[in-house]
Amino acid sequence: MENASIFVIMVSAVLVNNFVLSRFLGICPFLGVSKQVETAFGMGMAVTFVMTLSGIMTYLVDKLLLSNYGLEHLQTAAFILVIASLVQFVEIVLQKMSPTLHQALGVFLPLITTNCAVLGLSLLNIQYKFNLVQTIVHSFFAAIGFSLAIVLFAGIREKLQTSDVPKPFLGFPIALITAGLMSIAFLGFTGLV
Amino acid sequence: MNMNLVILASVSLGVMGLIFGIILAFASKKFAVEVDPRVSEVREVVPGANCGACGYPGCDGFSNAVVKGIAPVNGCPVGGAAVAAKVAKIMGLEAESSVKRVAKVKCDGHAENCSNRYDYQGIDSCLAANMLNGGPKSCSFGCMGLGSCVAVCPFDAIHINDKGLAEVDPEKCTACGKCIETCPKDVISLVPYEQLTIVTCNNKDKGPQVKKNCKVACIACGMCERNCPHDAIHVVNNLAEIDYSKCVNCMICVEKCPTGAIQGDLSLRKMEA
C-alpha cells in the first residue's frame, strides 16, 4: 500500500475495504444510529469530519513525536488520547463558532469520541506507511465508505419497518441479518484493486 | 526490563495528556457559551424518558423551551402535577394546576355495530390496512383494531379488547401521545382523567350515510346540543364534541343520544341539586 495511487486508495477505502462491511469497524454507531436515513446521514457527516481531522492529527503525532523517539508501541494509547481530546475540542469550538453546525452534528460528536473506526483508521494509516496526502485521502474516503454503508443500511431499515417480519426476527435480529447480507454483497468488490 | 523505556512511555503519555487537558480547559473558558443554569435544573426534575410527548425533542429540548418561556411549566404530560410544581418553583412561578389526562379511543364500532367492506388479510398494522382503500371497516373514521397503537405504547397501557377495538387503561396511561401520533384514523384523543362522559364516535360524515355504516355513530342530529344545560356539547363538522372545561358529567346527553354515540356510566353521574 506504500506506493498506492490516490485513486486506488479511494476505491479501496470506500468499496473494497469498507470500514463497516469488510473491516467490521464502527459497528456500534452503524447499528445504533441507522433507524432513519436523515440521522444516519448526519452521523455519516460527523464521522467524516472527525475521521479526516483525527487521521491527519494522529499522523502528525506519530511522525513528529512517537516514531522520532522510538515510542511506536504507544500508538494505541496516544491515539485514543489525541482523538478524544480532538473531538472534545471540536465540540467546544463548534458550539461557540457555529451553533447551526453544532445542532446538526453535536449529538453525534460524543458518540464518535471512542469509536473504533476512528482509532482503526489512524492505526491503519501508520501501518500502510502512507504519506500525508495519502493519509488525508484515505481518512476522508474511509469515512465516506462508512457514511455510504450507514445510509444504505438506514434506507433498508426504514423499509423493514413496514415489512412483515417474523416475530423472532423483529428489531435487532433482522437488522443484524441485513447487515450480514450487505457485508456479503460488499464482498463482491474484493479483487477490484 | 528497560526502566528508561517505561519512564519515557509514562512521561510522554502523561505530558501529552496534560497538554491536551490544558488546551481543553483553555478552550472551554475561551469558547464558553452561556447557558442559563435553570436549564440544567429543569432537566434534573423532569422524568428524563425523552419520550417527546411535550412536543420538544427530548427532555433537553423541553428544559430549554421552558426556560426560554416558550413551553408552559406544566408542559410535561408524563411528569404530571408533581413535576410541574417543581419546574414552576425553579422558574419562580406558581404551577397552573395540570389536570391529569388520559388517551381515549373514540369509537365503539366493533363487528356487531359496524360491518366490514372487505376481508382484510394483510399484516397486523393499521397503517398498512389504511393504505388499502382506507381500511376494511365500512366507516372510514373508526378504529380498525389492528393494534398499531398497542405496538408503540411505551407503558403497556393500550390493548385490543375482546370486541376488537383498542382500549386504553386509564391507570397506566401517561398521556404521552404516542398512540395518537401513530393512529392513521385519528380516533384516539386526550381526555381529562375525571371526564366520565365521552363521545365514542369519530365519524365526520353526514347523518344518513353514517347511519348506513354503523349503529352507534354520531349522526349529528344535535339532540345533545339542545338538551345540554351547560352549553358544553356542540356539533362541529357533523360530530358532537364535548367542551371538557364546561361539562359537569350530568350525562343528560348520554340519555338523549338516539344512537348511543355518547357514553358514560350512569351510576357515576353527577346530578345537580
Describe this structure in words.
The complex is a heterodimer of chains A (193) and B (273). Chain A has 193 residues and is mainly α. In chain A, helix 1 (6-16) runs parallel beside helix 8. The radius of gyration of chain A is 17 Å and the shape is globular. Helix content of chain A is 72%, strand content 0%. In chain B, helix 2 crosses helix 3 and helix 2 packs antiparallel against helix 4. With 273 residues, chain B is of the alpha+beta class. In chain B, strand 6 and strand 7 form a beta hairpin. In chain B, the strands form 4 sheets. A two-stranded antiparallel sheet of chain B has the order 1-4. A two-stranded antiparallel sheet of chain B has the order 2-3. The interface between A and B is medium-sized, with 19 and 19 residues.
Largest interface: A-B, 19 and 19 residues
**Which structural class should the secondary elements of chain A be placed in?**
mainly alpha
At the first level of CATH, the class of the largest domain in chain B is: Alpha Beta
Order of H and E elements of chain A:
HHHHHHHHH
The number of distinct β-strands of chain A equals 0
Overall spatial form of chain A: globular
Q: Give me the CATH architecture of the largest domain in chain B, please.
A: 2-Layer Sandwich
Helix content of chain A: over 70%
Query: Major beta sheet of chain B, specifics?
Result: 2 strands, antiparallel
The stretches of 5 or more residues of chain A where confidence is low (pLDDT under 50) are: none
Oligomer: heterodimer
Helical fraction of chain B: 25-40%
Number of helices of chain B: 10
| Beta content of chain A | under 5%
Mean pLDDT of chain B: 84
Question: Runs of chain B with pLDDT <50, length 5+?
Answer: none
**How does the overall form of chain B come out from the CA principal axes?**
elongated
